[in-house]
């Protein structure tokens, strides 16, 4: 006969029913799906998916990363050679393979479903498929007990892949660069998210906004930060989709190590755990988890459709400010891994923090600057540059 220990004695005396109000509500569901979204290119979605995921895994969370972009930048960033793989997100999205059959274990508690350029053809292949916006939701359903968080790296568009991410997601995390045009396109993103929320996925929330490639020494960054914070606090008034949306206090500083790490197929924690980039993503993971524990349980009932689809107009872009006295220091770019060329998003625009003042109130910005010329910022901080943005898909 088993000997009763102190725990058993405790259990026999304790009953949830004895608590006023019964058992506590479950605060955090078993698996949370977070779509990292911005239809602008080069704003830090992939870098954030990779390194926030790695930082959360380092804190003991079980993480699944989904590369939902046919560019396969996340796959490349994590050093996975997709030319040798039999399966990728393309097979998952076209129903030829399950997530479990496709995933690659990248590190302890860090799995990846890799992408492949073939995924670019899936949108056309799926055009006549019924409920094609729910493919990812269904594909993730069997994983619910295996992971704490699924982070989805979305492509720079609001097409079918992003729509699948929004339907599968509990939360949206938006990455932004502190750029004069940072909010351009955000009302379209919020409108699309609102439609998904009201028609397809009432769980969906915009959990927050993270600034990437930030340089706090420029006036421009502070102005954009103030505008974005104001915009989201106005937008969140009374709207379920945006109730609780926060602008994360952790800002990811521009850091050359973050730009170099993909060329070595490593997360920033693997590539240089002592860099500012690693410190910032660790802090972001801490803030993310702290915010998670604040959350109230989410109602399952569908929300009223109309309010969420109306986003306030973004503010007029601020007038460009002159550069600060201290120019950001530039760090030499390290040689990339021999076998793997450094990744460069054609959309990534890693321009200098201040655009041409002669351009007036809405300066024109260089779109093609080399991301690897990123500067390592010693203090929280900005960068300018956006890539192409694409139109939304009808929901
Ligand atoms: N904090 C940072 N400091 C320096 N470079 C960065 C930083 N964050 C990202 N980068 C670099 O900027 C480029 C664009 O970043 P990333 O690929 O994460 O953007 P994205 O939004 O995923 O782009 P796309 O829309 O094309 O998928 C990459 O070359 C990346 O290495
Ligand atoms: Mg990307």
What does this structure look like?
It is a single chain. By secondary structure, the protein is an alpha/beta fold. It has one domain: Rossmann fold. It is built from 14 helices and 8 strands. The protein has helices at residues 6-13, 45-58, 73-77, 89-93, 99-102, 119-125, 135-140, 160-168, 186-199, 219-235, 256-260, 268-271, 276-294, 305-309; strands spanning 32-37, 63-67, 104-107, 110-113, 149-153, 171-176, 205-211, 246-247. The chain has an 8-stranded mixed β-sheet, sandwiched between helices. Strand 7 (205-211), helix 10 (219-235) and strand 8 form a beta-alpha-beta unit. Helix 2 (45-58) crosses helix 13 (276-294). It is globular. It starts with 5 loop residues before the first helix and ends in an 86-residue tail after the last helix.
Overall form: globular
Fourth CATH level, the homologous superfamily: P-loop containing nucleotide triphosphate hydrolases
Mean pLDDT value: 76
CATH class category name? Alpha Beta
Cofactors and ligands: adenosine-5'-triphosphate, magnesium ion
How much of the polypeptide forms β-strand, as a percent range?
Answer: 5-15%
The CATH topology comes to Rossmann fold
* Assembly of the depicted chains: single chain
CATH-level-2 architecture: 3-Layer(aba) Sandwich
Biggest β-sheet description? 8 strands, mixed
Tally the beta strands.
8
* Rg estimate, integer Å: 22 Å
List the uncertain runs. 1-17, 296-395
Helix content: 25-40%
Major sheet: arrangement of strands = 3-4-2-5-1-6-7-8
Order of helices and strands: HEHEHHHEEHHEHEHEHEHHHH
Output the number of helix runs: 14
- Structural class by helix and strand composition: alpha/beta
Termini separation comes to: 61 Å
The structural domain count equals 1
């Amino acid at each position: 006969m088993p000997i009763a220990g102190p725990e058993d004695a405790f259990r026999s005396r304790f009953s949830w029913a004895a608590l006023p109000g019964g058992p506590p509500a479950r605060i955090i569901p078993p698996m949370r799906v977070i779509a990292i979204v911005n239809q602008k290119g080069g704003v830090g979605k992939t870098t954030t998916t990779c390194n926030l995921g790695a930082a959360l895994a380092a804190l003991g969370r079980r993480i699944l990363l989904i590369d939902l972009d046919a560019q396969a930048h996340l796959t490349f960033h994590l050093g996975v050679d997709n030319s040798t793989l039999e399966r990728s997100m393309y097979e998952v999205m076209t129903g030829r393979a399950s997530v479990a059959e496709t995933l690659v274990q990248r590190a302890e508690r860090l799995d990846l479903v890799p992408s492949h350029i073939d995924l670019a053809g899936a949108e056309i292949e799926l055009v006549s498929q019924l409920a094609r916006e729910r493919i990812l939701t269904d594909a993730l359903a069997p994983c619910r007990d295996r992971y704490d968080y699924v982070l989805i790296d979305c492509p720079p568009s609001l097409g079918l892949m992003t729509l699948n991410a929004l339907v599968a997601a509990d939360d949206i995390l938006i990455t932004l660069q502190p750029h004069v045009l940072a909010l351009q396109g955000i009302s379209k993103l919020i409108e699309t998210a609102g439609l998904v929320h009201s028609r397809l996925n009432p769980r969906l929330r915009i959990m927050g906004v993270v600034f990437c490639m930030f340089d706090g020494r420029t006036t421009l960054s502070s102005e954009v930060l103030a505008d974005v914070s104001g915009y989201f606090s106005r937008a969140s008034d009374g709207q379920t989709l945006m109730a609780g949306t926060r602008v994360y206090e952790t800002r990811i500083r521009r850091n050359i190590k973050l730009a170099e790490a993909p060329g070595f197929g490593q997360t920033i924690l693997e590539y240089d755990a002592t860099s500012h980039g690693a410190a910032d993503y660790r802090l972001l993971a801490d803030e993310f988890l702290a915010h998670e524990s604040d959350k109230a349980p989410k109602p399952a009932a569908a929300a009223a459709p109309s309010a969420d689809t109306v986003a306030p107009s973004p503010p007029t872009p601020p007038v460009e400010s002159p550069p600060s006295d201290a120019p950001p220091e530039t760090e030499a770019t390290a040689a990339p891994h021999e076998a793997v060329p450094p990744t460069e998003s054609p959309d990534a625009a890693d321009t200098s923090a201040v655009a041409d003042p002669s351009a007036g109130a809405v300066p024109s910005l260089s779109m093609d600057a080399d991301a690897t010329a990123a500067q390592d910022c010693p203090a929280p901080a900005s960068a300018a540059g956006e890539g192409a943005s694409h139109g939304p898909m009808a929901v």
